[in-house]
Amino acid sequence: MKILIVGGVAGGASTAARLRRLDEHAEIIIFERGKNISFANCGIPYYAGGVIQEREKLEILTPQKIKELLNIDARVEIEVVKINRNKKSVIVKDLKTGQEYEESYDKLVLSPGANPVKPPLKGIESKKIFTIRNLDDADKIKKIIEEEKFICRGSIYTELGLPEIDSDYLKSNDMSSLKTAKAAVIGAGFIGLEIAENLVHLGIEVTIIEMSPQIINNADPEIAAQLQNHMKEKGVDILLEEAVESFSEGNKLEINLKSGKTLEVDFAVLAIGVKPENKLALEAGLEIGKLGGIKVNEYLQTLDPDIYALGDAIEVKDFVSGNDSLIPLAGPANMQGRIVAENICGINTRYESTQGTAILKLFDLTFGMSGNNEKQLKRNGISYQKVYAHSFSHAEYYPNAYPITIKLLFSPENGKILGTQVIGREGVDKRTDVIAMAIKLGGSVRDLIDAELAYAPPFGSAKDPVNIAGMIAENMLTGKVKPIFWDEIDKINNEFFILDVRADEDFKKVSGSLENTYRIPLEQVRNRLSEIPTNKKVFVYCAKGLKSYFASRILVQNGFQEVYSLNGGYLTLKHTLANKENKALPAG
Protein backbone atom coordinates (compact mmCIF):
# COMPACT_ATOMS: atom_id res chain seq x y z
CA MET A 1 0.00 0.00 0.00
CA LYS A 2 1.26 3.45 -0.97
CA ILE A 3 0.17 6.33 1.24
CA LEU A 4 0.84 9.99 0.51
CA ILE A 5 0.55 12.57 3.29
CA VAL A 6 0.20 16.26 2.48
CA GLY A 7 1.66 18.28 5.35
CA GLY A 8 3.86 17.31 8.26
CA VAL A 9 3.98 18.97 11.71
CA ALA A 10 1.52 17.44 14.21
CA GLY A 11 -1.19 15.76 12.14
CA GLY A 12 0.82 14.51 9.19
CA ALA A 13 3.82 13.31 11.17
CA SER A 14 1.69 11.49 13.76
CA THR A 15 -0.27 9.80 10.95
CA ALA A 16 2.96 8.62 9.33
CA ALA A 17 4.45 7.32 12.58
CA ARG A 18 1.32 5.34 13.49
CA LEU A 19 1.06 3.96 9.95
CA ARG A 20 4.58 2.59 10.17
CA ARG A 21 3.92 0.93 13.51
CA LEU A 22 0.85 -0.77 12.03
CA ASP A 23 2.31 -1.65 8.61
CA GLU A 24 6.03 -2.24 8.27
CA HIS A 25 5.81 -2.68 4.50
CA ALA A 26 3.67 0.28 3.45
CA GLU A 27 5.29 2.94 1.26
CA ILE A 28 4.79 6.24 3.10
CA ILE A 29 5.69 9.64 1.65
CA ILE A 30 5.21 12.99 3.41
CA PHE A 31 5.18 16.22 1.37
CA GLU A 32 5.87 19.39 3.36
CA ARG A 33 6.12 22.77 1.62
CA GLY A 34 8.00 24.25 4.58
CA LYS A 35 11.60 23.57 5.53
CA ASN A 36 10.76 21.45 8.58
CA ILE A 37 8.91 18.15 8.40
CA SER A 38 7.87 18.20 12.03
CA PHE A 39 8.39 21.06 14.46
CA ALA A 40 6.86 22.23 17.73
CA ASN A 41 4.82 25.13 16.38
CA CYS A 42 3.34 25.79 19.83
CA GLY A 43 6.86 26.71 20.96
CA ILE A 44 7.37 29.39 18.30
CA PRO A 45 6.41 32.40 20.47
CA TYR A 46 8.85 31.22 23.14
CA TYR A 47 11.63 30.80 20.59
CA ALA A 48 10.93 34.28 19.19
CA GLY A 49 11.16 35.67 22.72
CA GLY A 50 14.36 33.86 23.65
CA VAL A 51 12.86 31.61 26.34
CA ILE A 52 13.73 28.68 24.07
CA GLN A 53 17.16 29.57 22.68
CA GLU A 54 18.18 26.56 20.60
CA ARG A 55 16.22 26.41 17.36
CA GLU A 56 17.03 22.72 17.02
CA LYS A 57 14.95 21.91 20.10
CA LEU A 58 11.81 22.77 18.15
CA GLU A 59 12.79 20.63 15.17
CA ILE A 60 11.30 17.34 16.30
CA LEU A 61 12.07 15.24 13.23
CA THR A 62 14.33 15.93 10.28
CA PRO A 63 13.84 14.06 6.96
CA GLN A 64 17.00 12.08 7.69
CA LYS A 65 15.89 11.11 11.18
CA ILE A 66 12.39 10.06 10.12
CA LYS A 67 13.96 7.93 7.39
CA GLU A 68 16.32 6.24 9.84
CA LEU A 69 13.73 5.69 12.57
CA LEU A 70 10.62 4.88 10.56
CA ASN A 71 11.72 4.29 6.98
CA ILE A 72 9.46 7.12 5.83
CA ASP A 73 10.28 9.28 2.81
CA ALA A 74 9.86 12.87 4.03
CA ARG A 75 10.24 15.55 1.35
CA VAL A 76 10.53 19.17 2.48
CA GLU A 77 10.05 22.31 0.37
CA ILE A 78 7.74 20.25 -1.82
CA GLU A 79 4.20 21.47 -2.43
CA VAL A 80 1.28 19.36 -3.62
CA VAL A 81 -0.47 21.56 -6.19
CA LYS A 82 -3.17 19.25 -7.56
CA ILE A 83 -5.06 16.07 -6.75
CA ASN A 84 -6.15 13.83 -9.64
CA ARG A 85 -8.83 11.77 -7.96
CA ASN A 86 -9.66 9.74 -11.07
CA LYS A 87 -6.04 8.70 -11.56
CA LYS A 88 -5.36 8.50 -7.79
CA SER A 89 -2.32 10.69 -8.13
CA VAL A 90 -1.04 14.11 -7.11
CA ILE A 91 1.04 16.72 -8.89
CA VAL A 92 3.84 18.02 -6.70
CA LYS A 93 6.16 20.96 -7.17
CA ASP A 94 9.74 21.22 -5.95
CA LEU A 95 9.88 24.74 -4.50
CA LYS A 96 13.68 24.83 -4.80
CA THR A 97 13.83 24.03 -8.54
CA GLY A 98 10.31 24.78 -9.74
CA GLN A 99 10.04 21.33 -11.33
CA GLU A 100 6.81 19.35 -11.12
CA TYR A 101 6.20 15.62 -11.12
CA GLU A 102 3.36 13.15 -10.51
CA GLU A 103 3.07 10.68 -7.65
CA SER A 104 0.44 7.94 -7.42
CA TYR A 105 -1.31 6.79 -4.24
CA ASP A 106 -3.55 4.12 -2.80
CA LYS A 107 -4.57 6.35 0.10
CA LEU A 108 -4.12 10.11 0.43
CA VAL A 109 -4.04 12.05 3.72
CA LEU A 110 -4.59 15.80 3.77
CA SER A 111 -2.97 17.60 6.71
CA PRO A 112 -2.28 21.06 5.26
CA GLY A 113 -3.07 22.91 8.49
CA ALA A 114 -4.32 26.48 8.60
CA ASN A 115 -2.98 29.78 7.36
CA PRO A 116 -2.75 33.01 9.37
CA VAL A 117 -5.51 35.44 8.50
CA LYS A 118 -4.00 38.31 6.52
CA PRO A 119 -6.67 40.83 5.51
CA PRO A 120 -6.20 42.84 2.29
CA LEU A 121 -5.21 46.09 3.99
CA LYS A 122 -3.11 48.79 2.38
CA GLY A 123 0.54 48.36 3.36
CA ILE A 124 0.12 44.88 4.85
CA GLU A 125 3.00 43.50 2.75
CA SER A 126 5.50 45.61 4.69
CA LYS A 127 8.62 43.75 5.77
CA LYS A 128 7.99 45.12 9.25
CA ILE A 129 4.78 43.08 9.57
CA PHE A 130 5.13 39.44 10.59
CA THR A 131 2.91 36.40 11.00
CA ILE A 132 3.53 33.48 13.33
CA ARG A 133 3.15 30.16 11.55
CA ASN A 134 6.56 28.50 11.38
CA LEU A 135 10.17 28.76 12.52
CA ASP A 136 11.08 31.04 9.62
CA ASP A 137 8.53 33.58 10.90
CA ALA A 138 10.14 33.49 14.34
CA ASP A 139 13.58 33.91 12.77
CA LYS A 140 12.43 37.12 11.05
CA ILE A 141 11.21 38.60 14.33
CA LYS A 142 14.44 37.68 16.11
CA LYS A 143 16.46 39.16 13.25
CA ILE A 144 14.82 42.59 13.38
CA ILE A 145 15.28 42.75 17.17
CA GLU A 146 18.96 41.81 16.96
CA GLU A 147 19.79 44.00 13.96
CA GLU A 148 18.15 47.11 15.41
CA LYS A 149 19.96 46.66 18.75
CA PHE A 150 17.06 47.82 20.87
CA ILE A 151 17.50 48.62 24.56
CA CYS A 152 17.90 45.44 26.60
CA ARG A 153 16.32 44.96 29.99
CA GLY A 154 17.28 41.94 32.02
CA SER A 155 19.52 38.92 32.11
CA ILE A 156 17.83 37.30 29.12
CA TYR A 157 19.71 39.70 26.85
CA THR A 158 23.16 38.48 27.76
CA GLU A 159 21.90 34.94 27.20
CA LEU A 160 20.78 35.99 23.72
CA GLY A 161 24.12 37.63 23.01
CA LEU A 162 22.61 41.12 22.92
CA PRO A 163 24.23 44.18 24.55
CA GLU A 164 23.46 44.54 28.23
CA ILE A 165 22.72 48.00 29.62
CA ASP A 166 25.02 48.29 32.64
CA SER A 167 26.90 51.12 34.35
CA ASP A 168 29.97 50.75 32.11
CA TYR A 169 27.81 50.85 29.01
CA LEU A 170 26.09 54.01 30.21
CA LYS A 171 29.44 55.75 30.84
CA SER A 172 30.85 54.92 27.42
CA ASN A 173 27.79 55.40 25.23
CA ASP A 174 25.50 58.24 24.29
CA MET A 175 22.09 57.28 25.69
CA SER A 176 20.36 59.28 22.96
CA SER A 177 21.39 56.64 20.44
CA LEU A 178 19.66 53.86 22.34
CA LYS A 179 16.24 52.76 21.16
CA THR A 180 13.42 51.13 23.02
CA ALA A 181 11.50 48.99 20.58
CA LYS A 182 7.77 49.39 20.20
CA ALA A 183 5.68 46.63 18.72
CA ALA A 184 2.02 46.07 17.99
CA VAL A 185 0.35 42.70 18.21
CA ILE A 186 -2.83 42.64 16.16
CA GLY A 187 -5.20 40.08 17.60
CA ALA A 188 -5.63 38.93 21.19
CA GLY A 189 -6.13 35.19 20.90
CA PHE A 190 -3.80 32.62 22.42
CA ILE A 191 -0.99 33.13 19.89
CA GLY A 192 -1.26 36.93 20.02
CA LEU A 193 -1.03 36.97 23.81
CA GLU A 194 1.85 34.49 23.88
CA ILE A 195 3.90 36.55 21.42
CA ALA A 196 3.01 39.75 23.31
CA GLU A 197 4.28 38.25 26.57
CA ASN A 198 7.52 37.14 24.97
CA LEU A 199 8.13 40.53 23.36
CA VAL A 200 7.64 42.19 26.75
CA HIS A 201 10.23 39.82 28.21
CA LEU A 202 12.61 41.16 25.56
CA GLY A 203 12.09 44.69 26.86
CA ILE A 204 9.80 45.74 24.01
CA GLU A 205 6.85 48.07 24.60
CA VAL A 206 3.78 46.22 23.34
CA THR A 207 0.36 47.45 22.27
CA ILE A 208 -2.35 44.89 21.56
CA ILE A 209 -5.04 45.81 19.03
CA GLU A 210 -8.23 43.72 19.24
CA MET A 211 -11.56 44.21 17.45
CA SER A 212 -13.58 42.47 20.17
CA PRO A 213 -14.55 44.04 23.51
CA GLN A 214 -12.23 41.58 25.30
CA ILE A 215 -9.11 39.50 24.82
CA ILE A 216 -9.47 35.72 24.26
CA ASN A 217 -12.90 35.30 22.73
CA ASN A 218 -12.93 31.71 23.98
CA ALA A 219 -13.08 33.05 27.54
CA ASP A 220 -16.11 34.67 29.14
CA PRO A 221 -15.69 38.40 29.79
CA GLU A 222 -15.29 38.26 33.58
CA ILE A 223 -12.49 35.66 33.19
CA ALA A 224 -10.83 37.59 30.37
CA ALA A 225 -10.99 40.68 32.59
CA GLN A 226 -8.57 39.09 35.05
CA LEU A 227 -6.07 38.41 32.27
CA GLN A 228 -6.51 41.91 30.87
CA ASN A 229 -5.93 43.46 34.29
CA HIS A 230 -2.80 41.37 34.72
CA MET A 231 -1.43 42.41 31.34
CA LYS A 232 -2.00 46.07 32.18
CA GLU A 233 -0.12 45.49 35.41
CA LYS A 234 2.79 44.23 33.30
CA GLY A 235 2.75 47.39 31.19
CA VAL A 236 0.96 46.11 28.10
CA ASP A 237 -1.32 48.62 26.40
CA ILE A 238 -4.56 47.00 25.22
CA LEU A 239 -6.82 48.66 22.65
CA LEU A 240 -10.17 46.87 22.57
CA GLU A 241 -12.94 47.36 20.02
CA GLU A 242 -10.32 48.80 17.71
CA ALA A 243 -9.37 47.78 14.17
CA VAL A 244 -6.60 48.51 11.67
CA GLU A 245 -7.51 50.64 8.66
CA SER A 246 -4.14 50.56 6.90
CA PHE A 247 -0.36 50.50 7.31
CA SER A 248 2.24 52.96 6.04
CA GLU A 249 5.99 52.77 6.34
CA GLY A 250 8.74 55.31 6.86
CA ASN A 251 11.39 55.16 9.54
CA LYS A 252 8.65 53.58 11.63
CA LEU A 253 5.67 51.43 10.78
CA GLU A 254 2.53 53.53 11.07
CA ILE A 255 -0.68 51.72 11.97
CA ASN A 256 -3.74 53.74 11.05
CA LEU A 257 -6.74 52.71 13.14
CA LYS A 258 -10.40 52.99 12.22
CA SER A 259 -10.95 55.24 15.23
CA GLY A 260 -8.69 57.80 13.58
CA LYS A 261 -5.71 57.17 15.86
CA THR A 262 -2.25 56.36 14.50
CA LEU A 263 0.35 54.20 16.22
CA GLU A 264 4.05 54.35 15.41
CA VAL A 265 5.89 51.09 16.06
CA ASP A 266 9.08 49.38 14.98
CA PHE A 267 7.23 46.27 13.82
CA ALA A 268 3.90 44.48 14.10
CA VAL A 269 2.82 40.88 14.47
CA LEU A 270 -0.41 39.70 12.88
CA ALA A 271 -2.21 37.22 15.11
CA ILE A 272 -5.78 37.77 13.98
CA GLY A 273 -6.49 34.07 13.75
CA VAL A 274 -6.18 31.23 11.27
CA LYS A 275 -8.33 29.84 8.49
CA PRO A 276 -8.30 26.24 7.21
CA GLU A 277 -6.04 25.56 4.22
CA ASN A 278 -8.73 24.14 1.91
CA LYS A 279 -7.55 25.16 -1.57
CA LEU A 280 -6.25 21.74 -2.59
CA ALA A 281 -9.38 19.95 -1.36
CA LEU A 282 -11.70 22.52 -2.92
CA GLU A 283 -10.06 22.24 -6.34
CA ALA A 284 -10.28 18.45 -6.10
CA GLY A 285 -14.05 18.66 -5.63
CA LEU A 286 -14.04 17.58 -1.99
CA GLU A 287 -16.78 18.96 0.25
CA ILE A 288 -16.02 22.12 2.23
CA GLY A 289 -18.15 22.99 5.25
CA LYS A 290 -19.87 26.29 6.01
CA LEU A 291 -17.00 27.31 8.29
CA GLY A 292 -14.41 26.73 5.56
CA GLY A 293 -12.98 23.45 6.83
CA ILE A 294 -12.80 20.19 4.90
CA LYS A 295 -15.83 18.00 5.66
CA VAL A 296 -15.02 14.55 7.01
CA ASN A 297 -17.04 11.67 8.47
CA GLU A 298 -16.50 10.00 11.85
CA TYR A 299 -13.63 7.99 10.32
CA LEU A 300 -12.01 11.21 9.09
CA GLN A 301 -12.70 10.35 5.46
CA THR A 302 -13.67 12.99 2.94
CA LEU A 303 -16.43 12.26 0.42
CA ASP A 304 -13.71 10.34 -1.46
CA PRO A 305 -13.20 7.17 0.67
CA ASP A 306 -9.53 6.99 -0.33
CA ILE A 307 -8.80 10.54 0.86
CA TYR A 308 -8.60 11.38 4.55
CA ALA A 309 -8.22 14.78 6.18
CA LEU A 310 -7.32 15.94 9.68
CA GLY A 311 -5.96 18.71 11.88
CA ASP A 312 -6.57 22.42 11.57
CA ALA A 313 -7.91 22.00 8.03
CA ILE A 314 -11.08 20.09 8.95
CA GLU A 315 -14.39 20.84 10.60
CA VAL A 316 -15.07 18.79 13.72
CA LYS A 317 -18.09 18.22 15.95
CA ASP A 318 -18.14 20.27 19.10
CA PHE A 319 -18.37 17.86 22.05
CA VAL A 320 -21.00 19.79 24.00
CA SER A 321 -23.28 21.20 21.30
CA GLY A 322 -22.70 18.69 18.52
CA ASN A 323 -22.40 21.57 16.05
CA ASP A 324 -19.73 21.86 13.38
CA SER A 325 -16.73 23.78 14.64
CA LEU A 326 -13.15 24.77 13.88
CA ILE A 327 -10.83 23.94 16.78
CA PRO A 328 -7.19 24.28 15.67
CA LEU A 329 -5.29 22.57 18.50
CA ALA A 330 -2.24 20.32 18.47
CA GLY A 331 -3.71 17.69 20.82
CA PRO A 332 -6.71 16.82 18.63
CA ALA A 333 -4.51 16.88 15.49
CA ASN A 334 -2.19 14.26 16.98
CA MET A 335 -5.15 12.15 18.07
CA GLN A 336 -6.71 12.40 14.62
CA GLY A 337 -3.43 11.32 13.02
CA ARG A 338 -3.49 8.12 15.02
CA ILE A 339 -7.11 7.46 14.06
CA VAL A 340 -6.52 8.09 10.34
CA ALA A 341 -3.64 5.61 10.36
CA GLU A 342 -5.76 2.98 12.08
CA ASN A 343 -8.62 3.38 9.61
CA ILE A 344 -6.24 3.14 6.63
CA CYS A 345 -4.90 -0.10 8.12
CA GLY A 346 -8.38 -1.58 8.61
CA ILE A 347 -8.84 -0.83 12.31
CA ASN A 348 -12.20 0.96 12.35
CA THR A 349 -11.77 3.84 14.80
CA ARG A 350 -14.12 6.80 15.18
CA TYR A 351 -13.23 10.38 15.93
CA GLU A 352 -16.40 11.68 17.50
CA SER A 353 -15.78 15.26 18.64
CA THR A 354 -13.45 17.88 20.09
CA GLN A 355 -14.06 19.61 23.42
CA GLY A 356 -11.47 22.36 22.98
CA THR A 357 -9.32 21.79 26.04
CA ALA A 358 -6.58 24.42 26.02
CA ILE A 359 -4.23 26.29 28.31
CA LEU A 360 -2.33 29.57 28.20
CA LYS A 361 0.58 30.95 30.21
CA LEU A 362 0.39 34.74 30.45
CA PHE A 363 3.14 36.27 32.59
CA ASP A 364 2.38 35.10 36.16
CA LEU A 365 -1.08 33.74 35.38
CA THR A 366 -2.33 30.59 33.71
CA PHE A 367 -5.70 30.21 31.99
CA GLY A 368 -7.23 26.83 31.19
CA MET A 369 -10.52 25.86 29.58
CA SER A 370 -12.50 22.90 28.32
CA GLY A 371 -15.97 22.41 26.87
CA ASN A 372 -18.25 25.33 26.04
CA ASN A 373 -18.12 28.82 27.47
CA GLU A 374 -21.16 30.83 28.45
CA LYS A 375 -21.28 32.68 25.14
CA GLN A 376 -21.29 29.42 23.16
CA LEU A 377 -24.04 27.92 25.31
CA LYS A 378 -26.22 30.99 24.79
CA ARG A 379 -25.57 30.96 21.05
CA ASN A 380 -26.47 27.28 20.80
CA GLY A 381 -29.61 27.61 22.93
CA ILE A 382 -28.33 25.22 25.61
CA SER A 383 -29.74 25.85 29.08
CA TYR A 384 -27.07 26.13 31.75
CA GLN A 385 -26.20 27.33 35.21
CA LYS A 386 -22.87 28.68 36.40
CA VAL A 387 -20.83 29.01 39.58
CA TYR A 388 -17.52 30.56 40.56
CA ALA A 389 -15.24 28.92 43.09
CA HIS A 390 -12.36 30.96 44.56
CA SER A 391 -9.88 28.65 46.29
CA PHE A 392 -6.12 28.25 46.66
CA SER A 393 -3.62 26.30 44.57
CA HIS A 394 -2.71 24.24 47.63
CA ALA A 395 -3.29 24.27 51.39
CA GLU A 396 -3.47 27.92 52.44
CA TYR A 397 -1.23 27.40 55.45
CA TYR A 398 1.60 25.97 53.30
CA PRO A 399 3.90 28.64 51.80
CA ASN A 400 3.12 30.20 48.43
CA ALA A 401 -0.54 29.25 48.16
CA TYR A 402 -1.98 31.33 45.32
CA PRO A 403 -5.61 32.11 44.50
CA ILE A 404 -7.24 29.95 41.85
CA THR A 405 -10.65 30.57 40.31
CA ILE A 406 -12.83 27.92 38.68
CA LYS A 407 -15.84 28.85 36.62
CA LEU A 408 -18.09 25.85 36.13
CA LEU A 409 -20.95 25.61 33.63
CA PHE A 410 -23.45 22.80 34.02
CA SER A 411 -26.95 21.65 33.17
CA PRO A 412 -29.68 22.92 35.55
CA GLU A 413 -31.60 19.68 34.95
CA ASN A 414 -29.08 17.03 35.93
CA GLY A 415 -25.83 18.84 36.78
CA LYS A 416 -23.98 17.50 33.72
CA ILE A 417 -20.80 19.53 33.24
CA LEU A 418 -20.83 21.61 30.07
CA GLY A 419 -17.64 23.62 30.39
CA THR A 420 -15.02 25.13 32.65
CA GLN A 421 -12.60 28.04 32.75
CA VAL A 422 -9.80 28.09 35.32
CA ILE A 423 -7.42 30.92 36.14
CA GLY A 424 -4.61 31.32 38.67
CA ARG A 425 -0.87 31.27 39.17
CA GLU A 426 -0.37 27.58 39.97
CA GLY A 427 -2.34 24.36 39.71
CA VAL A 428 -4.52 25.52 36.81
CA ASP A 429 -3.37 22.74 34.50
CA LYS A 430 -4.24 20.04 37.02
CA ARG A 431 -7.76 21.34 37.69
CA THR A 432 -8.46 21.97 34.02
CA ASP A 433 -7.43 18.43 33.09
CA VAL A 434 -9.49 16.85 35.87
CA ILE A 435 -12.64 18.69 34.81
CA ALA A 436 -11.88 18.08 31.12
CA MET A 437 -11.87 14.35 31.77
CA ALA A 438 -15.12 14.64 33.72
CA ILE A 439 -16.66 16.43 30.72
CA LYS A 440 -15.35 13.74 28.36
CA LEU A 441 -16.94 11.02 30.47
CA GLY A 442 -20.28 12.86 30.71
CA GLY A 443 -19.77 13.59 34.39
CA SER A 444 -21.88 15.76 36.65
CA VAL A 445 -21.11 18.20 39.44
CA ARG A 446 -21.69 15.32 41.84
CA ASP A 447 -18.74 13.53 40.26
CA LEU A 448 -16.55 16.52 41.06
CA ILE A 449 -17.62 16.36 44.70
CA ASP A 450 -16.80 12.64 44.80
CA ALA A 451 -13.49 12.97 42.93
CA GLU A 452 -10.69 11.55 45.07
CA LEU A 453 -7.69 13.66 44.14
CA ALA A 454 -4.08 13.52 45.31
CA TYR A 455 -3.56 15.62 48.41
CA ALA A 456 -0.65 16.82 50.47
CA PRO A 457 -0.24 20.43 51.66
CA PRO A 458 2.31 21.41 48.97
CA PHE A 459 0.03 20.18 46.18
CA GLY A 460 -3.60 20.72 47.10
CA SER A 461 -6.17 20.79 49.87
CA ALA A 462 -8.19 18.07 51.54
CA LYS A 463 -11.13 19.65 49.74
CA ASP A 464 -9.59 20.37 46.37
CA PRO A 465 -10.77 23.40 44.36
CA VAL A 466 -12.39 20.88 42.00
CA ASN A 467 -14.38 19.40 44.90
CA ILE A 468 -15.34 22.88 46.09
CA ALA A 469 -16.61 23.87 42.63
CA GLY A 470 -18.79 20.75 42.59
CA MET A 471 -20.14 21.50 46.07
CA ILE A 472 -21.08 25.07 45.18
CA ALA A 473 -22.83 23.84 42.03
CA GLU A 474 -24.75 21.17 43.93
CA ASN A 475 -25.87 23.70 46.55
CA MET A 476 -27.32 25.76 43.73
CA LEU A 477 -28.96 22.77 42.04
CA THR A 478 -30.62 21.63 45.25
CA GLY A 479 -31.90 25.11 46.11
CA LYS A 480 -29.75 25.65 49.18
CA VAL A 481 -28.75 29.04 47.84
CA LYS A 482 -30.29 31.58 45.49
CA PRO A 483 -27.51 33.14 43.41
CA ILE A 484 -27.09 36.56 41.90
CA PHE A 485 -24.10 37.04 39.59
CA TRP A 486 -21.75 39.90 38.79
CA ASP A 487 -23.65 40.69 35.57
CA GLU A 488 -27.00 40.87 37.39
CA ILE A 489 -26.06 43.60 39.88
CA ASP A 490 -28.43 46.01 38.14
CA LYS A 491 -31.29 43.86 39.48
CA ILE A 492 -30.48 45.05 43.00
CA ASN A 493 -32.89 47.90 43.73
CA ASN A 494 -34.63 49.43 46.74
CA GLU A 495 -36.58 46.21 47.25
CA PHE A 496 -33.35 44.69 48.60
CA PHE A 497 -31.53 45.09 51.87
CA ILE A 498 -27.84 44.90 50.88
CA LEU A 499 -25.73 43.09 53.45
CA ASP A 500 -21.94 42.86 53.40
CA VAL A 501 -20.67 40.10 55.73
CA ARG A 502 -16.92 40.74 55.34
CA ALA A 503 -14.80 41.15 58.43
CA ASP A 504 -12.16 43.89 58.46
CA GLU A 505 -9.38 41.57 57.27
CA ASP A 506 -11.54 40.40 54.34
CA PHE A 507 -12.32 43.97 53.41
CA LYS A 508 -8.60 44.83 53.34
CA LYS A 509 -7.92 41.95 50.93
CA VAL A 510 -10.81 42.81 48.59
CA SER A 511 -11.74 46.44 49.15
CA GLY A 512 -14.70 48.36 47.82
CA SER A 513 -18.45 48.17 48.38
CA LEU A 514 -21.77 48.43 46.64
CA GLU A 515 -23.87 51.51 47.31
CA ASN A 516 -26.29 51.45 50.25
CA THR A 517 -24.49 48.55 51.88
CA TYR A 518 -25.08 47.59 55.53
CA ARG A 519 -22.15 45.68 56.98
CA ILE A 520 -22.37 42.94 59.60
CA PRO A 521 -19.41 40.52 59.75
CA LEU A 522 -20.50 36.90 59.36
CA GLU A 523 -19.39 36.04 62.89
CA GLN A 524 -21.93 38.56 64.25
CA VAL A 525 -24.92 37.82 61.99
CA ARG A 526 -26.67 35.42 64.39
CA ASN A 527 -26.60 37.99 67.20
CA ARG A 528 -27.67 40.92 65.02
CA LEU A 529 -30.62 39.46 63.12
CA SER A 530 -32.85 42.22 64.45
CA GLU A 531 -30.91 44.76 62.38
CA ILE A 532 -31.97 43.03 59.14
CA PRO A 533 -35.47 43.98 57.90
CA THR A 534 -37.89 41.10 57.38
CA ASN A 535 -40.05 42.98 54.88
CA LYS A 536 -37.33 43.18 52.23
CA LYS A 537 -35.41 40.79 50.03
CA VAL A 538 -31.89 40.32 51.38
CA PHE A 539 -28.87 40.43 49.07
CA VAL A 540 -25.71 39.17 50.80
CA TYR A 541 -22.17 39.50 49.51
CA CYS A 542 -18.63 38.96 50.74
CA ALA A 543 -15.15 38.79 49.22
CA LYS A 544 -15.35 35.44 47.41
CA GLY A 545 -18.86 34.08 47.91
CA LEU A 546 -18.24 31.60 50.73
CA LYS A 547 -19.20 33.72 53.71
CA SER A 548 -22.23 35.14 51.92
CA TYR A 549 -23.40 31.56 51.37
CA PHE A 550 -22.94 30.80 55.07
CA ALA A 551 -24.87 33.97 55.96
CA SER A 552 -27.69 33.15 53.57
CA ARG A 553 -28.11 29.73 55.20
CA ILE A 554 -28.32 31.40 58.63
CA LEU A 555 -30.94 33.87 57.42
CA VAL A 556 -33.09 31.32 55.58
CA GLN A 557 -33.20 29.06 58.64
CA ASN A 558 -34.18 32.01 60.79
CA GLY A 559 -37.27 32.82 58.78
CA PHE A 560 -36.05 35.22 56.11
CA GLN A 561 -37.96 34.33 52.95
CA GLU A 562 -35.98 35.73 50.02
CA VAL A 563 -32.23 35.68 50.52
CA TYR A 564 -29.78 35.94 47.63
CA SER A 565 -26.00 35.50 47.61
CA LEU A 566 -23.47 37.09 45.22
CA ASN A 567 -21.86 34.03 43.62
CA GLY A 568 -18.13 34.55 43.17
CA GLY A 569 -18.20 37.45 45.61
CA TYR A 570 -17.07 41.03 45.24
CA LEU A 571 -13.73 39.79 43.85
CA THR A 572 -15.33 38.63 40.58
CA LEU A 573 -17.29 41.86 40.31
CA LYS A 574 -14.22 43.98 41.06
CA HIS A 575 -12.16 42.48 38.24
CA THR A 576 -14.84 43.34 35.70
CA LEU A 577 -15.26 46.87 37.09
CA ALA A 578 -11.49 47.51 37.01
CA ASN A 579 -11.35 46.29 33.43
CA LYS A 580 -14.18 48.59 32.32
CA GLU A 581 -12.38 51.52 33.92
CA ASN A 582 -9.11 50.48 32.19
CA LYS A 583 -7.29 50.19 35.50
CA ALA A 584 -4.62 47.67 36.40
CA LEU A 585 -5.64 45.40 39.25
CA PRO A 586 -3.10 43.06 40.85
CA ALA A 587 -4.20 39.48 40.23
CA GLY A 588 -3.74 38.15 43.74
Secondary structure: elements and pairs:
Blueprint: E1 2-6, H1 9-22, E2 27-32, E3 38-39, H2 44-48, E4 59-61, H3 63-70, E5 73-76, E6 78-84, E7 89-94, E8 100-104, E9 107-110, E10 114-116, E11 129-131, H4 135-148, H5 156-159, H6 167-172, E12 182-186, H7 190-201, E13 205-210, H8 221-233, E14 237-240, E15 244-249, E16 253-257, E17 262-265, E18 267-270, E19 274-276, H9 279-283, E20 307-309, E21 316-317, E22 324-325, H10 330-344, E23 358-362, E24 365-371, H11 374-379, E25 385-392, E26 403-410, E27 417-424, H12 428-440, H13 445-450, H14 465-477, E28 482-484, E29 496-500, H15 504-509, E30 517-519, E31 537-541, H16 546-556, E32 563-566, H17 569-580
Parallel strand pairs: 1-2, 1-9, 2-5, 9-20, 11-18, 12-13, 12-18, 13-14, 28-32, 29-30, 29-31, 31-32
Antiparallel strand pairs: 3-4, 6-7, 7-8, 10-19, 15-16, 16-17, 21-22, 23-24, 24-27, 25-26, 26-27
Helix pairs in contact: 1-10, 8-17
